[in-house]
Amino acid sequence: MVELRLYIAGQTPRSAAACANLKKLCEEHLPGRYRIEVIDLLEHPQLAAGDQIVAVPTLVKKLPEPLRRVVGDLSNTERALVGLQLRPVTKKGPTP
Amino acid sequence: MTKPAMKQKTPLRTLSKAPTGIAGLDEITGGGFPRGRPTLVCGSAGCGKTLLAMEFLVRGVTQFGEPGVFMAFEETSEELTQNVRSLGYDLDDLAEQKKLAVDFVRVERNEIAETGEYDLEGLFVRLGYAIDSVGAKRVVLDTIETLFGGLSNFAVLRGELRRLFRWLKDKGVTAVITGESGDGTLTRHGLEEYVSDCVIQLDHRVTEQVSTRRLRIVKYRGTTHGTNEYPFLIDEDGISVLPVTSLGLQHEVSGERVSSGVPRLDTMLGGEGYFRGSTVLVSGTAGTGKTSLAAHFAAAACQRGERCLHLAFEESPGQLLRNMRSIGIDLEPWVKKGLLQFHASRASIHGLEKHLASIHKLVREFQPRVVIMDPVSSMVAAGTRRDVTVMLTRLIDFLKIEEITALLTNLTSGDEEPEKTDVGISSLVDTWLLLRDLELGGERNRVMYVLKSRGMAHSNQMREFLLTNRGVELQDVYIGAEGVLTGSARQAQEAKEKTAALLRQQEVEGKQGERERKREALEARVAAMRKEFEAEDEEAKRIIGQEHTSQQVVEQDREKMGRSRKSDTNETPARSRKTPGSRKRKSRASPMRRELK
């Protein structure tokens, strides 16, 4: 089971895009074995510090270890998967 | 220190300021950082940025009732708490009181992947939450540039930072943002572009193995501020900036006089000693008795019941006490009574600013009326001459403002001109005593004179300076045809004069005796002659008596004969015979009379 937490700040177009992109990504690559929690920081600002959120949207992979963070609207699915370490890295290189 | 000056400026100021509470910084900024605006504090690694920011925040809470938020990008809350605990700040306690919030923001590039667009709303949310949770008026971001290391989209970052500072302004919080100096720029990522109200630069320089921290206000919009580089230091009480040039010459002066501890010296200084609050410089070559003179002054101060702070840079307190005891000055009772405090440290132990600050602190804590620095010349070991002069100027000003009488000793080396101090403070002191060696007759002797003493009629005489077992004694020097004589030369001269006087006296006495003897002889002779005369007189009388008797006998015989011859006259022959007898007596007395004459 992959536990994912998406942090957004308000219902902005970017938040919406991130949500949609995440759902699509999970359906495609982790069908049936994922759980998504969306946290709106404007409603729960106290939760931002716990997961070290600076940028939004931020996707945090809580489980399985290790903990990973991906910032951005997840428009690049490939990079998101690599960032979350959900796909074996074929050619490891520094993120641009 | 210059509170009056600050008060004068207040009505002119339009910009509201948030006082930092940091000693000296409020003076040079004219009241603190701009209220409700961000201030940039930049400098190289280890120059004290974080500490300055933290002190601003903690003092805001403890002194000015302004809660604060510390957003740390480099250290965790625990590390930060631990680091500032050594300065006596308990962040946990302040956090419990809901006066201070510390938030550690960790941005690790290898933990973060970026896909697509994002902004830093998360940071805003966190900051906003922290501000609201304590009702913060002050915010510190330390060091926000770390974000540039964690996130790769600089364009987004720049935009967001601009927005952040705008947002902070709108929130009305006074913010301190720290930034590390870049190569030739104030900060690596040009934060100064965004934070343009107040920029403070910290610097940590090492010159001749002595490190000095300096602070400079690069800019401060809408207000006047000190423009110099001000030395500052970090000690157990946090940061203190030493504003030099803000000190004026408006201090109160006292007409009160204090004894130097040496009665003869007081006499030389117009009969009463030094002025209270004045600065006394005692200069001289090695071993001329500077420390002893200082010890006298210390003892005199303690005797008056005043506290005295003795800053020794060359001797340990124990050594000083022992040495002074050897000349009859026992300072130990005063130390025990708490009136005399020694503070011994090598001049080279730390930089001048630290020395100055520690002296400030000692003075504030101990509240002495008298401060002794022995010797100030050793300060050269802690900085360049110019720096030492500046430092001593500041110290003297400070002591004068506090109306503390200061006695500084200065060691001049033999080849130097004595009427010059190598630390260049001679013009700052009020009374200058000069101790010198005079070489004469195979020995060195100490002499002392008052080179200057402002505001009093002081003696222009040289005095021989003797260190006896009863302390310092001043003696008149011998001034005569052979010049100034001191020591055994003076004693020899004195002995010589004594002998001459004795001889003269003896001569007079001798003359008097002779006269007496002569008179006696004369009188004896007169007596002898009188005796002789008397004897002769006696003899003459006897002869006259005899003649008289024999004449009587002759007359009687003649009478008898006449009677027997029945003569009718008996008078005429007797009268004729008397005359030759008297003539004979006269002739006998005449030689005696001649002799008497």
Unreliable sequence segments of chain A: none
Total helical segments of chain A = 2
The percentage of residues in β strands of chain B lies in: 15-25%
Radius of gyration of chain A: 13 Å
Order of helices and strands of chain A: EHEEEH
Assembly state here? heterodimer
Briefly note the structural class of the backbone of chain B. Answer: alpha/beta
Explain what you see.
- The complex is a heterodimer of chains A (96) and B (597).
- Chain A has 96 residues and is of the alpha+beta class.
- Chain A has one domain (2-83): Glutaredoxin.
- Chain A is built from 2 helices and 4 strands, in the order βαβββα.
- Chain A has helices at residues 13-29, 77-83, and strands at 2-8, 34-40, 58-63, 68-71.
- Chain A has a 4-stranded mixed β-sheet with strand order 2-1-3-4, with helices on one face.
- Chain B has 597 residues and is an alpha/beta fold.
- Chain B folds into 3 domains: 3-241, 3-Layer(aba) Sandwich (Rossmann fold); 257-476, Rossmann fold; 491-561 and 580-596.
- Helices cover 42% and strands 23% of the residues of chain B.
- Chain B contains 16 helices and 25 strands.
- Chain B has a 9-stranded mixed β-sheet with strand order 5-4-7-8-3-9-10-11-12, with helices on both faces.
- The N and C termini of chain B lie far apart (104 Å).
- Mean pLDDT of chain B is 82; it is low at 1-11.
- The A-B interface holds A 7, 9-10, 14, 17-18, 21, 41-42, 45-46, 48-49, 52-58, 67-77, 79-80, 82-84, 95-96 and B 103, 105-107, 109, 111-126, 128-129, 147, 150-152.
Helices, strands, pairings?
The complex is a heterodimer of chains A (96) and B (597).
Chain A: E1 2-8, H1 13-29, E2 34-40, E3 58-63, E4 68-71, H2 77-83
Parallel strand pairs in A: 1-2
Antiparallel strand pairs in A: 1-3, 3-4
Chain B: H1 3-9, E1 17-18, H2 25-28, E2 33-34, E3 38-43, H3 49-64, E4 68-72, H4 77-85, H5 91-96, E5 100-104, E6 112-114, H6 121-134, E7 138-142, H7 146-150, H8 154-171, E8 174-180, E9 198-207, E10 210-220, E11 229-235, E12 238-241, E13 257-258, H9 263-268, E14 274-275, E15 279-284, H10 290-303, E16 308-312, H11 317-326, H12 332-337, E17 340-344, H13 352-366, E18 370-374, H14 385-401, E19 405-411, E20 431-440, E21 443-453, E22 463-468, E23 471-476, E24 478-480, E25 483-485, H15 487-565, H16 572-596
Parallel strand pairs in B: 3-8, 3-9, 4-5, 4-7, 7-8, 15-19, 15-20, 16-17, 16-18, 18-19
Antiparallel strand pairs in B: 1-2, 9-10, 10-11, 11-12, 13-14, 20-21, 21-22, 22-23, 24-25
